Amino acid sequence: MNRFRSVAATAALLLVTSAGACRAESVGYYVARDSQQELSGGVTNPNFDRLTFLFNHGNHFHSIGRFGGGPNQLPESYVGGRITLAEGFGAMAGRFVSVRYHNADPASEYSDLRVASIHTLADAPVGSEEEVLYNSSAGRWSDLPLDGAMVALEVVELSEGLNATFGDGSEVATGVGDRLTLGAGDSFTGPLQFFTDLGVAARTGLSATFRLIDVNAGSPLLGSGDFRFDFATVPEPGSAVLVGLGLAGLAGLRWRRSRRPRLA
Predict the structure, then answer these.
(1) If 11 and its partner were Cys, which of 136, 202, 228, 248 is the partner (CB 3.0–4.6 Å)?
(2) Which InterPro entries match (predicted)?
(3) Residue 262 domain-assigned?
(4) Concatenated DSSP letters for 102-156?
């Protein structure tokens, strides 16, 4: 059942970083299909041909949300910590919101919450960082197309008082079963954003668990395993340097809760 609720607010997206921390073209996360049929030792790869969530680690990817193992959390377990939600202001006063930032905390590397199809890198100049990234792991993530798919994030778990949206904010996930449409498989790109309900106190244990699905009614691609974002709130951006302020297009948001059967 769909639930519609208007929110008379515009979300402010804070771009927080330091000099040299921004990638010129690539984004923080990508979606691909795993083309590797066998793992080392001839073991069948349980993620073969499935949608996979990828963390951009510079010249290669870390696959997240894998069946048969991890890491399945962000920040990854070897890094620890949580992504910071900063205190909002203006129309978002009284809420904590996700921002892109860079500081001494290794978890800040995971704060670039922009998500894109792997194939948005297909035309990158030869020898560029993006071209190296696209063809990393011997083409494991770029070999299989996503054309024909309509990729979405489905909420598996969501902390009370935490919400998520993608792109223009026309869909807002507020509970288990909600979906955020990312877009057509080979071309989508946009920001994944998180924000708390009004009046939610500072907390260190907020999290959101998703899985990738193909909502194409024809012949949907296989979904990913579950993966989790971990957050903590801070009363203000602190020592991070604010370098930009953009509007996230959330004025008059329609809050949609769309509960449907889980796909394979």
Answers:
(1) 248
(2) Ice-binding_C (IPR013424)
(3) no
(4) -SSSGGGGG---EEEEGGGGTTPPTTSHHHHHHTHHHHTTTSS--TT-EEEEEEE
